[in-house]
Design goal:
This protein is α+β, with helices and mostly antiparallel strands and 390 residues long. 37% of the residues lie in helices and 31% in strands. It is built from eleven helices and 20 strands. The strands form three sheets. Strands 5, 6, 12, 13, 14, 15, 16, 17 and 20 form a nine-stranded mixed β-sheet that branches. Strands 1, 2, 8, 9, 10, 11, 18 and 19 form an eight-stranded mixed β-sheet that branches. Helix 1 runs parallel beside helix 4, helix 1 runs parallel beside helix 8 and helix 8 packs antiparallel against helix 9. The chain is globular and about 60 Å long. The structure holds flavin-adenine dinucleotide. The site of flavin-adenine dinucleotide has 32 residues, from helix 1, strand 3, strand 17 and helix 8.
Length: 390
């Protein structure tokens, strides 16, 4: 049995970042991932995109990888505009108001995974088990033992479950989830638009759910359209022209006529919040701990913030006790991240409820919120700062 410091299960954006972070702290890490990594292909953009906030850009930069991301493909956005179907005055956030050139970058999931994989493969402190899956997990007082489906046995002082929303690690350690099915699906695609997007991330709230147009190159946007499941399924089957007609009508023609330039896909929207982020010597990170509504584009950002906070906890622990994996700091990390993630998940859910609703009282409240947001500069800047991760 191989003895290690940390075993990370799951090689998505969050698990790869966690493995790299721990290895760079001088820890011996095993990374277990079920699937061989997909190589990013310029000609076939990944429909799953991320609005990466500035704090998480800094995390990737701290690994020395941000230039690698830019060399593949990432598009900056310098403003965000939020509007609804009823009120005339949109809420607009500008990076310039925060003294920044950008609020973040739009990039493909595959780009970040590819860049992180390349780094992980060359990292001497990381031992890869891919493709392989976790089969069993047992804890003793001092270590976690993980059996892989290939028959390999691993043991370490800490295990990290970063194996996504349907986490097997979470099941194996018996942590329950609070689950809320929104009855919606997120439809994703790339479209060309008649008018330029002005490097702005646009979000329009409709009775049926939010619709986002995210800048993805010259007159090209990635759309994330939250819809009731049956309507999402219906729209996936329509002819491209009919789809774009419905899309332009939902977006009130804000960027003129659109033209579909990719496949369409849809993913179910549900909140899944693990009841805790630590159990014994096992941590849950990313979607394994908190899958949230994508309306604020914060899904991945919350997971990468788990990694950043864990890095700080390990550093502090090492300074204070000489042991990066001291249980006290890990427990504090889990408490703080649990409250921040829960607050964020519930905030996104309530925004979705208030803004995606045709109830007259809620419409009035919405109008007040948009109006106040625009008039009270500190409030507007605080919202922009949160979204940008400043
Ligand atoms: C189609 C789609 C579109 C999305 N679009 C958006 C969006 O526009 N904006 C947004 O903010 N969020 C979006 N999300 C959510 C976002 O992708 C997630 O928040 C993010 O991927 C979470 O990263 P993660 O690393 O925690 O989990 P994941 O990306 O799910 O990675 C988990 C990894 O664990 C591996 N794994 C799973 N089980 C095992 C096992 N038993 N053993 C070993 N490995 C295992 C998987 O192969 C995978 O590589 C989307 C999600 C989907 C599915």
């Amino acid at each position: 049995m191989k003895s290690l410091d940390v075993i990370v299960v799951g090689g998505g954006m969050v698990g790869l970042s966690a493995a790299l972070m721990a290895a760079r702290q001088g820890l011996q890490v095993a990374l277990v991932e079920a699937h061989a990594p997909k190589v990013w292909q310029r000609e076939q953009p990944d429909l799953r995109v991320v609005a990466l906030a500035l704090d998480n850009q800094a995390l990737i930069d701290s690994f020395g990888l941000w230039q690698e991301v830019l060399a593949r493909r990432a598009f900056p956005y310098s403003a965000m505009t939020v509007f609804d179907a009823v009120h005339s005055s949109p809420l607009r956030f500008n990076a310039g108001d925060l003294g920044r050139p950008f609020l973040g970058h739009i990039l493909e999931n595959d780009v970040l995974v590819d860049v992180l994989w390349q780094a992980v493969i060359h990292e001497p402190n990381i031992h890869l088990h891919c493709p392989d899956k976790i089969g069993s997990l047992h804890e003793t007082e001092s270590e976690v033992r993980i059996g892989l489906q290939s028959g390999v046995e691993l043991s370490a002082r800490l295990a990290i479950g970063a194996d996504g929303a349907a986490s097997r690690v979470r099941d194996l350690i018996g942590v329950g989830v609070d689950e809320q099915d929104y009855g919606q699906k997120g439809v994703v695609a790339f479209v060309h638009t008649e008018l330029g997007h002005q490097n702005t991330a646009w979000q329009r709230f409709l009775d049926t759910g939010p619709l986002a147009f995210l800048p993805f190159g010259d007159r090209c946007c990635s759309i994330v359209w939250s819809l009731p499941q049956a309507e999402a399924d219906r729209l996936l089957q329509t002819e491209p022209e009919e789809f774009c007609h419905a899309l332009d009508s939902a977006f009130a023609g804000t960027l003129g006529k659109s033209r579909l330039v990719s496949e369409r896909a849809a993913f179910p929207l549900r909140r899944r919040l693990a009841k805790c982020m630590i159990q014994g010597r096992t941590l849950l990170l990313g979607d394994a701990a908190h899958a949230v509504h994508p309306l604020a584009g914060q899904g991945v950002n919350l997971g990468l913030r788990d990694v950043r906070a864990l890095r700080d906890a390990l550093t502090l622990s090492k300074q204070k006790t000489g042991d990066a994996l001291d249980g006290g700091q890990l427990a504090r990390w889990a408490r703080t991240r649990y409250s921040e993630n829960t607050l964020a998940a519930l905030a996104f859910e309530n925004i979705n409820r208030v803004f995606s609703n045709d109830n007259m009282m809620l419409s009035l409240l919405r109008g007040r919120l948009l109006g106040l947001g625009n008039r009270i500069t500190p409030m507007k800047n605080a919202m922009a700062r949160y979204a940008a991760g400043l």
